[in-house]
Amino acid sequence: MRRGRGLHAAGAGPERYQGYGRGLRGISLAVLQALEDGLEKADADPSVKAVMICGENGKFSAGADIRGFSSPNRQGPSLAALVSLIESSKKPVVAAIEGIALGGGLEVALGCHYRVAHVKARMGLPEVTLGLLPGAEGTQRLPRLIGVPAALDMITTGKHISAHEALKLGLVDEVVEANTVEAAMHLANQVIGQPLGPRRLSLRPVPPLPDTDGFLRAARLRVRERARGCLAPELCVQAVRAATELPFSAGVRRERELFVELLSSGQARALQYAFFAERAVRRWSAPGGAASHGAAPRPLRSAAVIGLGTMGRGIVTCLVKANIPVVALEQNLEYLNVGRKAVMLLLEREAKKMEQDAQALDFHNPARLQFTVDFDLLRDVDLVIEAVFEDMALKKEIFHKLSRICKPEALLCTNTSALDIDEIASATSRPEQVIGTHFFSPAHVMRLLEIIYGRHTSPTAIATAMQLARALRKVGVVVGNCFGFVGNRMMFPYVEQAVFLLEEGSRPEEVDQVLEDFGFKIGPFRMSDLAGLDVGWRSRQGQGLTGPSVPAGTPARQRLGRRYSPLPDLLCESGRFGQKSGTGWYRYERAGGRTATPDPGVHSLLAQYRHTHGIRPRHIDQEEILERCLFALINEGFAILAEGIAAGPEHLDVIYINGYGWPRHRGGPMFYAATVGLPRVLARLQHHSQAHPDVPGLRPSAFLEKLVAMGNPPLKEWMSYLSQQSPRL
Ligand SMILES: CC/C=C\C=C\CC(=O)SCCNC(=O)CCNC(=O)[C@H](O)C(C)(C)COP(=O)(O)OP(=O)(O)OC[C@H]1O[C@@H](n2cnc3c(N)ncnc32)[C@H](O)[C@@H]1OP(=O)(O)O
Q1: Which of 188, 251, 306, 401 could form a disulfide with 50 if both were Cys (CB 3.0 to 4.6 A apart)?
Q2: Annotated catalytic residue 127
Q3: Which residues of 348-360 are buried (b: 16+ CB within 10 A; e: fewer)?
Q4: Where does the 3-hydroxyacyl-CoA dehydrogenase C-terminal domain start and stop, copy by copy (predicted)?
């Protein structure tokens, strides 16, 4: 507690706060109690004329402790009651918002009669991202303060807004560059004696719209479309609707009902798991005991990107956006000019999106972004990312050159989705500096960066690559070296099942629909069309699975003693490469078009194919489609864990949520498996494996079998059952 000039400053001291780490403070029960006591004292003390609430360490509040939501015995004062208590105070209460005011923290500020924010403060109601809604009357107060459209936008997206935006919306009364606490006290002194009624948000009407009902109906459709199958955004809309239709107290009751519905939904648990999983993967470990806590990154002051194809362009754009000076290199002037134009276009677009920060990008300045065909310019950079196409010989030639040219401490990264990092590193004299960085397309948009260590990669190199991910605002996940690493390796059996389902009777649009209804952004066939069918075709040719190197007499639907589907190869042979060629598993309006239409040409190709191979098509129900695709993917996940390619199931889940469009509200594939129950996953895999004995992807992993035999332990204990089995960790 602090007092000053007749002002009672209620800010709980460090001993009363529950910390989250890095100076973050949450609203614990102790904090609630301290605020309640402080307010009661202030109200009772005639020498106190006004109250100011602030955080400590320059942060107002990160909101409630997310872990507390899953605690079965939450007791003590409620946040909603505290917010009401603040609002009903007879003395003016001013919030001094520094750093962040999120979730319950912002709801506390909404209970105050005035809000002053520091210019660098950020505010938001991120509950929706945790599968919840602002349950301390925030859905009822915010629309009364800033109107339905702006409130709905904040509540349904969970976005953080800047102090300036907050001022524009009327969320705060004042923005200051200097001392926020002083400014809040100053304001409090000025408003002493002024009527508080108009400042109490619960007493205000919601500002009317010309057609509130129509607006809310459209909003509901929009969030449904955006967050397929995810409950929270839709229930947020319902809560805001209650604010527009009901008196405050009835609206609050409705908010509570909706909050409880969300809290008890599995989705809130999944989304909160995803929040912590994304933070847990920052702590990495690798063979030989190397781990994040013992490794420091090298500085990243400059970078080079080799190859300005789709991936290279996106990577250059990310680096420029992260304010890291870049040298962009191509093999000849013709490719360089094409690449330069494309990068500039991307950067112009990004600059437009970033509005006021655009000038900071400064990408016309050669000191920030330089295009060249001269390898010598790579001499002094701290980091090189090679992003040429997936050709081992070419990559090795480039890495050989890099190890001669670059300074000894430079980090040498290869952007590959499957190739062997050790083989690439073997072309250099410093394999400890070589690491895989698997970006996802479009690289300047997708959040995932798979970071692959090789046999000789040093802990410093791993730490530096993780630092790169952070600088690029990506989620970096450290994984071991194997074909396809984690993401693509799990994807292979998933896509394989999808194609087998076509052979047996499904259509691409049926399979996609089932997986999109499950919550995937796009189904496997739309995804293949988007990525380009020729990519996998080239890879299969390289592996000797298709093309002239397949030995004569090999059965069409068999390779290496296991079932194989040549369907994707047949599509490529007929020039169907997906969106880029205008036809693939679907038809598009033109080459490069994006609107997928079911293609009668593919339907007749499938009919002809089944006829040729004597396959009698059957009706395949949604459950089988879902189980075969998802459980095959999950099964591979268990194999990956058993081999020590990833440090835990959270790593796989974070990869799938951020790189493969897995629905976040289902928590990732391994979390989903735990939700379904491992005994059921195992039983269904056994069933499908019996029906398709020539498909190894359906044969249950030994690790899955072991976990079931051990009594289906919770996900966070899985890895403890591996200690003796894992050769790599
Ligand atoms: C009846 C209903 C009553 C009340 C309802 C209240 C609703 C809420 O308040 S829900 C919570 C709303 N708040 C949030 O969602 C904030 C979540 N946190 C963040 O977005 C970020 O952590 C950040 C505050 C923006 C800070 O980011 P950064 O600086 O990058 O730090 P992090 O690495 O993310 O976090 C550090 C450390 O703190 C942990 N943590 C952060 N916030 C919370 C939280 N609200 N609850 C529990 N733990 C939190 C985070 O996990 C990190 O921990 P590590 O152990 O270091 O991983």
Answers
A1: 188
A2: yes
A3: eebbeeeeeeeee
A4: 484-588, 625-714
Tell me the per-residue pLDDT of 689-714, one tens digit each, with 9 for 90 and over: 999 999 999 999 999 999 999 999 99
Cβ proximity of 219 and 156 under 8 Å: yes
Q: Which two tokens stand for residue 542?
A: 């390289």
Distance of CA 288 to the CA centre of its chain: 30
Find all residues with CB under 8 Å of 501, minimum gap 6, and list them: 511, 620, 624, 625, 628, 629
Number of C-beta neighbours around residue 77 at 10 A: 15
What would the two tokens of residue 139 be? 């859905």
Sheet strands (E) in 531-641: 558-559, 562-563, 586-587, 597-598
* Model pLDDT for residues 83-128, shown as the tens digit of each residue: 999 999 999 999 999 999 999 999 999 999 999 999 999 999 999 9
> What is the third-level CATH fold of 622-721?
N-(1-d-carboxylethyl)-l-norvaline Dehydrogenase; domain 2 (1.10.1040)
Pocket test for ligand 1, best of 69, 141, 253, 279 (most atoms within 8 A of CB): 279
In what helix (H) or strand (E) does residue 62 lie, and over which residues does it extend?
none
Q: Which of 87, 107, 496, 503 is catalytic?
A: 107
What was the pLDDT predicted at 174? 98
The string of pLDDT tens digits covering residues 546-592 is: 999 999 999 999 999 999 999 999 999 999 999 999 999 999 999 99
* pLDDT tens track for 469-505: 999 999 999 999 999 999 999 999 999 999 999 999 9
Pocket of ligand 1 (CB under 6 A): 20-22, 24, 26, 62-67, 79-80, 100, 102-104, 126-127, 130, 135-136, 276, 279
User: Residue 231 in contact with residue 131, Cβ under 8 Å?
Assistant: yes
| Residue 386 designated active-site | no
CB 114 within 8 A of CB 92: yes
CA angle in degrees (0–180, nearest 5) for 479-483-484: 70
* Same topology between domain 506-612 and domain 622-721: yes
Which CATH number is correct for 2-264, 3.90.45.10, 3.40.50.80, 3.90.226.10, 3.40.50.970? 3.90.226.10
Per-domain residue ranges of the chain: 2-264, 287-479, 506-612, 622-721
Q: Structurally, what CATH architecture does the domain formed by 287-479 represent? A: 3-Layer(aba) Sandwich (3.40)
Q: Domain 506-612: give its CATH code.
A: 1.10.1040.10
- Cα(561) to ligand 1 centroid in Å equals 51
Q: Is the pLDDT of residue 526 over 90?
A: yes
Can you tell me the distance from the alpha carbon of 75 to that of 677, in angstroms, rounded to the nearest whole number? 31
Question: What are the two backbone dihedrals, phi and then psi, of residue 125, each rounded to the nearest 5 degrees?
Answer: -120, 80
Q: How far is the CA of 66 from the centre of ligand 1 (A)?
A: 7
pTM (predicted TM-score): 0.93
For 645-683, write each residue's pLDDT tens digit: 999 999 999 999 999 999 999 999 999 999 999 999 999
Angle at which helices 669-676 and 622-642 pack, to 10 degrees?
Answer: 110
What SS3 class is residue 575?
coil
